[in-house]
Amino acid sequence: MDLKTELLPNFQDDVYFFNQGNHLSAYRFLGSKKHSVNGEEGYQFSVWAPNAHQVYLQGDFSHWNNLPMAMVPGGVWTLFVSHAKKGDC
User: For the whole prediction, is pTM greater than 0.90?
Assistant: First the structure.
């Protein structure tokens, strides 16, 4: 997975400023955010868990199977799911 092409715009800057304590709107990049990658609509899921060894995402969009998230520098785990849609559990 080429993580750089899947991140929201300014994501790495957002994580940097969040860790510096200077980010006043973390809600704009953490959680689930509608996003498009290579023209494919979906959602990017992100959570701050700097001490976790692994983080998984699961929902009805994955048939409740664990989807491993990737850690980006700064303790944020993220994953883009192209087949997730509004209203999914």
Answer: no
Domain segments of the chain: what residues? 3-81
At 6, is the pLDDT very low, low, confident or very high (cuts 50, 70, 90)?
low
CATH code of the domain occupying 3-81: 2.60.40.10
| Burial profile 24-39: b = 16 or more Cβ within 10 angstroms, e = fewer | eeeeebbebbebeeee
CA 40 to CA 5: how far, in whole Å?
Answer: 12
Cβ–Cβ < 8 Å for 76, 52: no
Max CA distance (Å), the chain: 38
Per-residue pLDDT tens over the stretch 39-73: 888 999 999 999 999 999 999 999 999 999 999 88
